[in-house]
């Protein structure tokens, strides 16, 4: 028998093919299976394990995509010649499909994957350009640190330490600090979520929430539905996990749910990732009717919805839309939130809300990954968030962002050439501009930098790296007068680009050096 003693678990949620791949890797790590060794024909192993042949083939494909095995046409599947580069656990969590193949040299180390291949290198260029003296950056989607209530938070830190002492500096619970969980439960119930005990997990920023969810649900090659455009950090993560991205377009009212419905008739994605409120990058908010239809369509197809509500607390206009997770049709919605957009993204405090078994699974993954999020920060934040001063500061922060958005919208209106379109967010930190006359945002960028303004090209938010005629502008961390100047500079760059295009004598502005 090849996998002697392997007892497949059919009810613990780990797909059979992954259990088989793990068992094969365990054989390799104990030395019972040698590098270069041939795996049995899939038909034989399937018979041995009492599964169908496709399941074994999927396990082999997983090993091949992670670089742990090689398929040779007509000969079979062989364990890779070099020593194993990733453990079974790492394979489960971090497949190597999206990046450099396992075993490829990286300063001598056999890196399992290359996250740089998942991230877009343009982000680094943008941050360098943004740091140039005199350049106004409308590219980064971060809140303004000048608005952070440092002193009140410092008092809460001290109070937390005074009251809870050394226990806040000891290892803590993976699920989260009791006081912070209590605050989150009360806060989220006020936002309409019906949360039972054990349904919240504190995470180190919603990015970690997304990572844990991705690792729990996505194997290499699995399909994942994303909005087009969507949050670039989610795209990078899904790419790193080896997901096959299925884009769903957005129209003037947000995600095109009927398009999604058609897609779900053909595909069986592992999850639908959506940002229904103050979407990043477009700033759009999905209507109540579309929310209900989205849940209906995904519920009928049995596909979990991952709701990213990162910007949901940052509403400064319009009536509040209930999160998807608060709607009666919300079965199996996995909800993520964060403090990062209001203030203190450096604290890395976010949360995931889901059914108990899902939370248990994510909690176990978090325990393995980083044990827990710092209790001191959670305890201090719980105090701060429930203080009266926090409510006042949140209102002030929202008022400031609203003023910045207003200046951005007004300046776009005043300065942009006819044919330019943009979204009008009721909250969040960004909006999206559609350039006139088929202009390409990538071509425009060097000219804009030349004029002294930086934006994020639409391509960075597109699963298929399309969206070349679009760009994202953010107003979070720039004062009103700079927003006005920045947008006017952008408008000047657009006009130059259009004139060049019309006269056929486009002067190509080369990208500034990377300093
Ligand atoms: N989701 C969205 C839509 C975001 O814009 C961001 C931050 N840019 C995140 C998740 C991650 O935020 P954090 O990890 O700080 O909570």
Architecture overview:
With 515 residues, the chain is α/β, with parallel strands linked by helices. It is built from 17 helices and 18 strands. It has helices at residues 16-29, 42-49, 53-65, 88-93, 115-118, 122-130, 150-164, 178-190, 206-217, 232-240, 257-266, 288-301, 356-370, 375-386, 388-415, 441-451, 480-503; strands at residues 69-72, 76-79, 105-106, 109-110, 136-137, 200-203, 223-228, 244-251, 254-255, 271-274, 305-308, 333-338, 350-353, 421-422, 430-434, 453-454, 456-457, 470-474. It has an eight-stranded mixed sheet, sandwiched between helices. Mean pLDDT is 89; it is low at 83-105 and 511-515. 4'-deoxy-4'-aminopyridoxal-5'-phosphate binds next to helix 9. 4'-deoxy-4'-aminopyridoxal-5'-phosphate binds at residues 141, 205-207, 231, 233, 275, 280, 308, 310, 338, 340, 345, 350.
Give the distinct bound molecules. 4'-deoxy-4'-aminopyridoxal-5'-phosphate
User: Could you report the average pLDDT, rounded to the nearest whole number?
Assistant: 89
Flag low-confidence runs. Answer: 83-105, 511-515
Helix content: 40-55%
Number of strands: 18
Strand fraction band?
5-15%
Judged by helices, strands and strand pairing, the structural class is: alpha/beta
Oligomer: single chain
Q: What gyration radius follows from the Cα positions, in whole Å? A: 25 Å
| Global morphology | globular
**End-to-end distance:** 60 Å
Q: How large is the count of helical segments?
A: 17
Strand order of the largest sheet: 6-13-12-11-10-7-8-9
């Amino acid at each position: 028998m090849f996998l002697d003693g392997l007892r497949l678990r059919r009810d613990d949620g780990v797909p059979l093919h992954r259990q088989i791949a793990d068992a094969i890797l365990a054989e390799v790590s104990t030395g019972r299976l040698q590098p270069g060794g041939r795996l049995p024909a899939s038909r034989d192993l399937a018979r041995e394990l009492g599964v169908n042949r496709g399941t074994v083939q999927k396990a082999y494909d997983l090993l091949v995509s992670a670089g742990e095995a090689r398929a040779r046409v007509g000969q079979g599947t062989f364990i890779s010649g070099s020593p194993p580069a990733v453990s079974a656990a790492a394979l489960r969590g971090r497949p190597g499909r999206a990046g450099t193949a396992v075993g490829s040299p990286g300063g001598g180390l056999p890196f399992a994957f290359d996250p740089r291949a998942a991230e877009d290198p343009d982000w680094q260029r943008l941050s360098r350009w943004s740091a140039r003296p005199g350049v106004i950056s409308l590219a980064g989607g971060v809140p303004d640190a000048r608005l952070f209530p440092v002193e009140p938070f410092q008092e809460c830190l001290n109070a937390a330490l005074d009251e809870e002492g050394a226990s806040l500096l000891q290892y803590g619970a993976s699920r989260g600090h009791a006081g912070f969980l209590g605050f989150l439960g009360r806060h989220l119930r006020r936002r309409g979520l019906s949360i039972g005990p054990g349904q919240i997990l504190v995470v180190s920023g919603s990015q970690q929430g997304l990572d844990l969810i991705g690792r729990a649900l996505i194997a290499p090659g699995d399909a994942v539905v994303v909005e087009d455009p969507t949050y670039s950090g989610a795209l990078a993560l899904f790419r790193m996990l080896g997901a096959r991205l299925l884009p769903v377009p957005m129209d003037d009212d947000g995600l095109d749910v009927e398009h999604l419905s058609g897609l779900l008739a053909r595909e069986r994605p592992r999850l639908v990732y959506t940002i229904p409120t103050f979407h990043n990058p477009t700033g759009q908010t999905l209507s109540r009717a579309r929310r209900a239809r989205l849940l209906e369509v995904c519920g009928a197809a049995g596909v979990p919805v991952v709701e990213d509500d990162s910007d949901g607390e940052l509403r400064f206009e319009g009536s509040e839309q209930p999160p998807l997770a608060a709607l009666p049709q919300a079965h199996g919605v996995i909800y993520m939130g964060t403090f990062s957009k209001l203030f203190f993204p450096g604290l890395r405090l976010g949360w995931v809300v889901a059914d108990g078994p899902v939370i248990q699974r994510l909690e176990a993954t978090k325990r393995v990954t980083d044990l827990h999020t710092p209790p001191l920060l959670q305890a201090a934040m719980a105090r701060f968030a429930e203080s009266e001063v926090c409510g006042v500061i949140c209102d002030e922060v929202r008022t400031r962002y609203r003023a910045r958005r207003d200046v951005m919208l007004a300046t776009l209106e005043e300065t942009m050439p006819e044919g330019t379109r943009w979204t009008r967010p009721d909250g969040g930190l960004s909006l999206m501009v559609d350039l006139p006359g088929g202009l390409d945002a990538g071509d425009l960028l060097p000219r804009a930098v030349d004029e002294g303004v930086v934006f994020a090209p639409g391509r960075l938010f597109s699963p298929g790296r399309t969206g070349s005629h679009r760009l994202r502008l953010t107003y979070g961390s720039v004062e009103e007068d700079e927003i006005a100047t920045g947008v006017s500079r952008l408008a000047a760059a657009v006009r130059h680009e259009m004139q060049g295009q019309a006269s056929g004598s486009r002067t190509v502005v080369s990208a500034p050096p990377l300093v």
